Amino acid sequence: MDSIYLIIVIILLGLAALDLVVGVANDAVNFLNSSIGSKVAPLWVIFTVASLGVLIGSMFSSGMMEVARSGVFYPEKFTFPTIMTLFLAVMLTDVVLLDVYNTFGLPTSTTVSLVFELLGAAVAVALFTIWTVGSGEQLGDYINSGKALAIISGIFISIAIAFAVGTIIMYISRLIFSFNYGKTFKYLGAIWGGIALTAITYFAIFKGLKGSVLVTPETLNYLDHNMGTALLYAFIGWTLLMALLQHLFRVKILKVIVLAGTAALAMAFAGNDLVNFIGVFMAGFDSFQIAQGVASAGGDIETLYMGKLSEPVIAKTGWLLGAGVIMILALWFSKKSRSVTETEVNLARKGEGVERFSSSPLSRSLVRGSLNFSKSMSKVTPGPVKRFIENRFEPMQLENKASFDLIRASVNLTTAALLISLGTSLKLPLSTTYVTFMVAMGTSLADRAWGRESAVYRINGVLTVVAGWLLTAFVAFTVALTVGLFLMWGGKIAIAFMLLLVVFILFKSDRFHSKRKSRELQHQQVLSSEVQLVTSSNEEVRLLLERTLIIYKRIIDGLEDENRKVVRKAMTEANELYAKFRDKREYEVVPTLESIQVNALDLEQEYVQLVDYSYEITKSLKAVSEATFRYIDNNHSAFSKDQIDDLKILYKNLSDVYTSYAAMDKTSDYSRFDQVTSMREIIIELNSKMTKRQIKRVKENQSSTRSSILFLNLVNESKIITLQSSNLMKSHRNFKEQYAKSVAGRDGKKMIMDVTLN
Is the dihedral of CA 393, 396, 400, 403 positive or negative? Predict the structure, then answer.
């Protein structure tokens, strides 16, 4: 047997391990969202509970391994070499596709991804076989498309139903308990717990453990025929236990419900979705063993058809246990799993804050229509009813700064468990990801988590995620089809190339994810003390003055030497600096003013001005660097020596101003601050002279049209930078003086208090 097949099996094993990591990173949101969003327990407790669920589910997985072997295509139509190529194309596509979704923090369905990757790769291999062999067979002889069509219909049905049911149940639940649910829950809590845990138990048995050794076939058969009685007994038992825990042992039973639901969803995820990550490898490994047996008997594996893959398969416990351990490690250590979870929690959280998504025309139209509908309903709703509803939805401060309370967390878990269980019992193709996400969005809407300040952004976020879902099937099919055709055509060279490409993509996506997370953390920065405010502002001003001179110098050097790389570097640095202060202005200023505990309006006013002036400087730097790069990139004529000399004069004067102020800032001695003002006037006068010189050069045809436009643009933006820099320096001086006065005032009061007490 050619060693390439053993290499393919090893590659499939490595890709399966990677797939487990990226798959858990995406699917972890399904069972972690409610616990993390409600902060039901410390993170390590939540992860421990989820890990136990994952381990149990993986050890007794009854996941349909047949899906990867014969669920989408007819294996008896494929030879051993072609089916190994098919499996390799699927795994290469799956790892990259899921990692891309994780990088952007978007939850998707690993089941849909796998099925359409199998379909795409199978079509590719079948088409290549038909074209090269010329057997006269049709594509339909190779492909079982019924499963794919069933899943597509399931996507649309599950999205709509989950959102609607989640909204209705949450609205009713909030009317019953309100946000101040302590008093009501005292009387109804045990019943609520009984209902929730009965639903979770039903879900755990029929979705998570069905077919495993933990539940015998006889027990399942009995339950199938006596479901009503079993559920009644379960409800009575759980209700009595919850009443005992709540009233006798003073246990917060909502936490028990949420943690139990988390474990059940994690168990179902591992038990049913494990096939999405290792099913293809297991099928490839089994194919290799079948071929190895034929080869050892002297058979020809090149013409060996893989009909044996249609036979029932028993998953090996050792492989499943190993997969479970990898999933648990990924759950604890994968940064991208936190990103996907944060996306859902961010969209579902109560109150305002930094929004990850922008608005769109569709989201604005939906919000506008909802507001009009709400106003119309308000006109016909009786006053007492409106007052009752408003009273039930009166918000309260959440404990531990949670994104939502335990009532909503329990509704999320219970509703998702019920819908998934119902779909399973009716043999409907539901996606766990789609159901849990849309239930969470529906409960958020019903809970009035999407206020007028955030609704357009949240709705657009939901639309973005749903659009990603709808694209999953198309992208998975198309990419797997392309990769499959490439592997069939290119053979061993194509395999080596695709492996290198996958490694490169994973490396780049990891770097992109790190940058995105760093940007989001910067968005969330809030200065909570006066010392933080002063320290951060001083550092930012000094950084800006230093980087402005460096960028300006690079622009002039790039123009003089016609050096594209130098100007590109200046443009990159200018864009980064602009993004930093734009985000600071948009995301930091107001939250800082709201949270900071100081009574110094003058100091806070100067802080706002510092950010504004810094933003204006970086905006001008961005404009001149981009204009200069376009000029150099388009290979326009070089600047004349006179133009470069004029720009150097501007730079020298600006550098003198910055250096002079840096010396004052270092000693906190601003007695010669009038020098800054004087230098500013000199630079403004220089700007005027240089504009006139350029006009003269234009009239004498000493400068091309494009170089004249750029030069005048540089001079004008330099004037803006000079004015805003002068304002920045003045505001920074005042800022430091106000802080000194504030500190001196507090010290003086402290001394008076000490004298009085003594």
Answer: positive
Question: Rounded to the nearest 5 degrees, what angle is found at the Cα of 278, between the Cα atoms of 276 and 283?
Answer: 105
Place of tokens 């399973």: 424
Q: Are 282 and 315 in contact (CB under 8 A)?
A: yes
Task: Report pLDDT digits (tens) over 300-336.
Answer: 888 898 988 887 766 677 888 888 899 899 889 887 7
Cβ pair 438, 158 in contact under 8 A: yes
**Quick one: DSSP state of residue 526?**
-
Give the span between the Cα atoms of 197 and 175, in whole angstroms: 21
Residue 730 near residue 680, CB atoms below 8 Å: no
Q: CA-to-CA distance for 282 and 276, rounded, in angstroms? A: 11
User: Where residue 748 falls among pLDDT bands split at 50, 70, 90?
Assistant: low
pTM over 0.85, yes/no: no
The domain locations on the chain are 3-521, 527-757
Which residue in 23, 51, 46, 24 sits closest to 36, CA to CA? Answer: 46
Q: Which CATH number does 527-757 carry?
A: 1.20.58.220
- 520-566 pLDDT, tens digit each: 666 556 666 778 888 889 999 999 999 999 999 999 999 999 999 99
Name 156's Cβ contacts closer than 8 Å, sequence gap at least 6.
Answer: none
Q: Which residues of 243-273 are buried (b: 16+ CB within 10 A; e: fewer)?
A: bebbeeeeeebbbbbbbbbbbbbbbbbbbbb
Write the CA distances from 425 to 421, 422, 430, 434, integer angstroms: 6, 5, 11, 18
Question: What's 290-310 look like in SS3?
Answer: HHHHHHHCCCCHHHCECHHHH
551 residue type, one letter? I
